[in-house]
Every structure is written in structure tokens, then in C-alpha cells.
């Protein structure tokens, strides 16, 4: 594949990832529902929140009208400090006292917010409560408590300064009285006393002026420019907003849970997963079996979806250069799966329908049951003396399409020895005619080693598995065992399995298909042989869709 093909695969990979993710749509839906329920619960249990707002313009108060350098005191107000004072415990205690509340002041502080708009001397008080009236009462209480605190602090500061100046003034006044008596009595140096008295009078006047200025200062801490009226509407999100927010959060969590589930899922989730782990193409997907259907469907139950799917698989195998003309085919499942027997029987019927001489071998020598489930043709058995591999072959009535032979299994002491015997090897590798094929079905490959004994001698192996149940590590193990034994996997046949419960279908969904894989083996090219085509038509619905899907995998 050239580098020019890589960008074309990106949309396919994205679509495949989305398909894999939304296979677990139950988790996504569950997250969405829980999120909306959580939003509704917050709205109902948490109640509405109301926010009342009050604004105060802060005035500067100082014991000196102007500081050094002629800078106005108004320019020296620290709004950050005032904001901290407004949120202090002392102001909160004053608010609680004003409203006669027994609540801890620290609890009242939690719902208070004080901010200072830039380039202003304004403090904005905001208080959240569960009712408009409570929010209004508390914000106004905090505003007045803050102003009262500032006024008390300013008054105390002025009184302290006045008291200090009065203390300095008192001895000067006493000294002036002494000088006045001395000057009146004519004792001492009159000029010196008058000069000293003049200085005292000047100092006393200065102190009295400062005291008068301090007592005349305006101690108003600030003006309320916005009263905290009861809000008309709640400030908290409404029910609709909370539901939407809960839906978004729940959807994100549901998708995350689905992604984690898909990453940790041990089972295969798509045709591509099967091909990636088995290193072989998927030959076909079997539609779900209808209730009451016979084991042999090709040639006996009309032209149903499953019969056509079997014909499509047989057609691909006949024209697969790895298998065509080499004689023997092993059909096996990784673990216990009824459809392995069904695939082997119906492939034998489809090969017979094409015109090949078919021998179906039941290599399950532990619990053989195949002969009892097939429509045997009366009087057409071919008894052959010898061991199990040379035993009696029974004729199976394939309806309008003729018949094929079956070698039924039987219990033997050492199954692995019988399957590795020269007689069985000769049965697989020495066909009696140019068009004879041997189809072998054994027990589960991962349950015992019987399948490996056949895989190393057969021309090819077809692995049958349930698309909804087979595990990735099982397919990896099957590939390792078969290739390690010298066998060749031709491909896989997937069974959709039963419908299951509605909850199971909702949580797992159906198997996904992908036309392009991530570096997995492609299906072998089908090159029809010259001559009239065999009577194998494309299967409608699932069979035809799979044929188109797997054909697109060829390079």
C-alpha cells in the first residue's frame, strides 16, 4: 500500500472507533440519565439561591486634613484594606447582633462576597441566601455593620488624639497663669516675662486650634449608594439549566465509561478484531438460526439466508488457491460451540451441491453424536473392514442436491493415537478421486489436543466462533497452536449467536463490520476457474453483505 492510501484510511478508522465506542450504548445512555437525574436532584433539594447587592462609597477619615507633601488623604485610602475589614469577623459579629441572630458569625461570612470595582472607592456587598428577604436583610446588616465599625474606629482615633493634645495643653495653661501673676505683681524681669508669656499664648492657641479642628472633623465613614433590596429572581441556575448541565456531564462520563469498557473488553467486538487476532480473513457470517431448523440446511430447507451463507463460504473455499484441489478441510472451534458441527455438515452439503465427492468425518472420538442428527440415506452404507478410519461410511440424504458420505465417530481408548495413525493420514491426504474432498470436524481445539492432531495433516483449517462470545486471547492461542503444529488457517466463520435478552442487546449491541483493518491479513483473491459457475448464489441479507465486506479486503 502506498503512502497515498493512508489518509483515506483515517476516516474509516475514526468511524470504526466510534462504532466500537457506541457498542456500549447502555453505558452512554445510563450516564446521560444519571446526569439529568443529578441535575434535577440539585434543583429540587438544593432550592433556589437569591443574591442581594449593596454598594457603599468609602470616605477618608484622618486626624490630619493633609499629609506630608500635600497629597490628599482621599488618595491614600487602601481599598484592599477596606475590603478585608468588610469581610472581617468583627463586622460579621456586628451584623449578627443587629439582626439578633444566634448564628455563628463565621457561618454568616461564608455567603458574603465583597468586591471593589477598579478605579473606584466603592465596595460592593453581595450576599446569597435561600430567600429574597433574608438575602436583603443580611446584606444591609453587613453594610451598616461595616459603616458603624469605621465610624467607631474614626471616633476613637479622634478622641485619643484630642485627649493627647489636651494633656499637652493643660501644663501650658498653668504656666501662663503663673506668668500672668508675676507680671501683675511687678516682680522679676518684666520684659522677659512678657516675651515668655507671648510664646505660651501662641502655643496654647495652636493646640486649642488643633483640638477644635479635630472635634469639627466629619466622621461620616461612607455613603450607601445602593440599598440591598430583595431580588426579584433567583441567582442560581434554574431547573432547565441544571438538567442541561447534568446531561452534558453525564454524557461525558458515559462516553468515558464506554471507552474504558471497550479497552478492557476481552471479547472480540468486530470482524476486524477476529482478523487481527486470528491472522486470517473472515469467510462468512452466519445469520441467526431460526427456531426448529435442521442441522443440514443446504439442499433440504430451501434457499434461506443461512443456506446461502454456507454456499458463499463453500464457493470461496473452492476457489481459494491455498485449499483448492488439496483434499482435506478441518472445521474446529476454539471452545465448545455447536455451530462448528453445523458448519462442517453444511459445507459438506455445499461442496456436494457443487459436484464434488464429499466425505464428512466426525473426528470427535470422545462423545460422538453426529450420525444420530443427520438424515441418512437408507441402504447406502459402505462397510469397510479395519479400524475406525477404515470403518463404515454412511450416506447422507442431501435432498434435491444428492448425497455425501459421513464417517461417524466412535469412542476409542486413545483418541489422539487414532487421529495420528497412518490410516487416518491416508484418509486425509489420499483422495479416491480428483474432486473428492474430506471435511473433518473435531471437538474444541482449546479443550483437548485432538484438533491439533488433525490440523497438522489437513490442507486447511476453518475456525468457527461466536462473534459475541469469542475472546481475543482464545483466537491468539488458536493461531499459535495451529501454526506451531504446521497447519494453515484458511479463515474464520462467525456465528451471530442467539438474540439474548433485551438488556444484553442494549448493552452489547450487534457485531460491527469494518472494511479496512489495521495491518491485518487480507482475504485471498478469488479467481474463478474456467467453465460453468457452480450453483452458488450470493446470500441475501447477512451472507451477501459479508461477501461484499470480505471481498473489499482483498488487495
Note the topology.
Elements: H1 6-21, H2 25-46, E1 50-58, H3 79-86, H4 89-99, H5 105-110, E2 112-115, E3 122-129, H6 132-185, H7 190-215, E4 222-226, H8 239-264, H9 271-278, E5 282-286, H10 305-318, E6 328-332, H11 339-354, E7 357-362, E8 394-397, E9 403-407, H12 415-419, H13 422-429, E10 436-441, H14 450-455, E11 460-466, H15 472-484, E12 489-495, H16 502-508, H17 542-551
Parallel strand pairs: 5-12, 6-10, 6-11, 7-9, 7-10, 11-12
Antiparallel strand pairs: 1-3, 1-4, 2-3, 8-9
Helix pairs in contact: 2-8, 4-6, 6-7, 9-15, 10-11, 10-17
- The pLDDT mean sits at 77
Order of helices and strands: HHEHHHEEHHEHHEHEHEEEHHEHEHEHH
**What structural class do the secondary elements suggest?**
alpha/beta
- Rg over C-alpha atoms, rounded to the nearest angstrom: 49 Å
Sheet with most strands:
8 strands, mixed
How many β-strands, per DSSP?
12
Strand arrangement within the widest β-sheet reads 5-12-11-6-10-7-9-8
Shape, principal axes of CA atoms:
rod-shaped
Instruction: Report the sheet-strand fraction.
Output: 5-15%
Q: What is the number of helical segments per DSSP (H or I, 4+ residues)?
A: 17
Low-confidence stretches: 1-8, 66-70, 510-555
Helix content: 40-55%
- Termini gap: 9 Å
Amino acid at each position: 500500500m502506498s503512502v497515498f492510501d493512508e489518509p483515506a484510511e483515517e476516516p474509516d478508522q475514526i468511524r470504526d472507533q466510534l462504532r466500537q465506542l457506541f457498542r456500549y450504548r447502555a453505558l452512554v445512555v445510563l450516564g446521560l440519565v444519571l446526569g439529568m437525574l443529578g441535575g434535577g436532584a440539585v434543583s429540587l433539594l438544593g432550592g433556589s439561591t437569591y443574591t442581594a447587592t449593596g454598594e457603599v462609597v468609602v470616605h477618608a477619615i484622618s486626624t490630619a486634613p493633609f499629609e506630608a507633601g500635600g497629597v490628599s488623604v482621599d488618595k491614600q485610602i487602601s481599598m484592599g484594606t477596606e475590603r478585608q475589614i468588610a469581610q472581617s469577623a468583627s463586622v460579621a459579629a456586628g451584623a449578627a447582633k443587629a439582626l439578633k441572630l444566634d448564628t455563628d458569625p463565621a457561618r454568616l461570612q461564608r455567603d458574603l462576597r465583597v468586591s471593589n470595582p477598579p478605579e473606584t472607592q466603592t465596595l460592593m456587598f453581595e450576599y446569597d441566601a435561600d430567600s429574597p428577604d433574608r438575602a436583603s436583610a443580611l446584606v444591609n446588616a453587613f453594610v451598616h455593620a461595616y459603616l458603624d465599625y469605621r465610624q467607631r474606629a474614626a471616633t476613637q482615633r479622634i478622641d485619643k488624639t484630642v485627649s493627647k493634645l489636651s494633656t499637652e495643653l493643660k501644663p501650658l495653661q498653668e504656666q501662663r497663669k503663673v506668668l500672668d501673676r508675676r507680671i501683675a505683681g511687678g516682680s522679676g524681669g518684666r520684659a522677659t516675662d512678657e516675651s515668655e508669656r507671648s510664646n505660651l499664648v501662641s502655643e496654647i492657641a495652636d493646640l486649642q486650634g488643633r483640638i477644635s479642628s479635630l472635634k469639627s472633623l466629619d466622621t461620616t465613614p461612607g455613603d450607601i449608594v445602593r440599598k440591598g433590596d430583595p431580588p426579584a429572581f433567583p441567582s442560581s441556575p434554574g431547573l432547565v439549566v441544571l438538567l442541561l448541565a447534568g446531561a452534558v456531564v453525564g454524557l461525558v462520563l458515559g462516553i468515558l465509561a464506554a471507552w474504558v469498557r471497550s479497552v478492557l473488553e476481552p471479547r472480540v467486538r468486530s470482524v476486524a478484531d477476529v482478523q487481527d487476532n486470528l491472522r486470517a480473513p473472515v469467510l462468512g457470517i452466519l445469520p441467526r438460526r431460526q427456531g426448529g431448523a435442521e442441522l443440514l440446511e443446504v439442499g433440504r430447507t430451501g434457499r434461506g439466508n443461512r443456506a446461502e451463507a454456507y454456499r458463499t463460504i463453500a464457493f470461496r473455499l473452492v476457489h481459494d488457491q491455498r485449499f483448492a484441489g488439496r483434499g482435506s478441510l478441518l472445521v474446529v472451534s476454539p471452545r465448545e460451540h455447536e455451530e462448528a458441527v453445523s458448519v462442517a455438515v453444511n459445507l459438506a452439503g455445499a461442496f456436494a451441491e457443487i459436484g464434488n465427492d464429499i466425505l464428512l468425518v466426525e473426528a470427535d472420538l470422545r462423545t460422538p453424536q453426529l450420525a444420530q442428527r443427520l438424515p441418512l440415506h437408507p441402504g447406502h452404507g459402505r462397510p469397510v473392514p479395519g479400524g475406525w478410519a477404515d470403518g463404515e461410511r454412511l450416506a447422507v440424504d442431501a435432498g434435491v442436491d444428492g448425497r455425501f458420505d459421513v464417517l461417524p465417530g466412535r469412542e476409542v481408548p486413545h483418541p489422539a493415537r487414532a487421529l495420528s495413525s497412518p490410516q487416518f493420514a491416508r484418509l486425509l491426504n489420499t483422495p479416491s478421486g480428483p474432486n473428492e474432498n474430506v471435511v473433518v470436524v473435531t471437538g474444541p481445539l482449546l479443550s483437548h489436543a485432538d484438533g491439533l492432531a488433525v490440523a497438522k495433516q489437513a490442507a486447511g483449517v476453518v475456525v468457527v466462533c461466536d462473534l459475541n462470545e469469542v475472546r481475543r486471547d482464545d483466537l491468539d492461542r488458536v493461531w499459535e497452536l495451529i501454526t506451531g503444529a504446521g497447519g494453515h488457517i484458511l479463515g474464520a466463520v462467525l456465528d451471530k449467536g442467539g438474540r439474548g435478552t433485551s438488556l444484553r442487546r442494549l448493552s452489547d449491541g450487534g457485531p460491527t463490520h469494518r472494511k479496512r483493518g489495521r495491518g491485518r491479513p487480507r482475504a485471498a483473491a478469488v479467481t474463478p476457474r474456467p467453465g460453468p459457475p457452480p450453483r452458488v448464489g450470493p446470500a441475501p441479507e447477512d451472507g451477501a453483505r459479508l461477501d461484499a465486506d470480505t471481498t473489499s479486503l482483498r488487495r
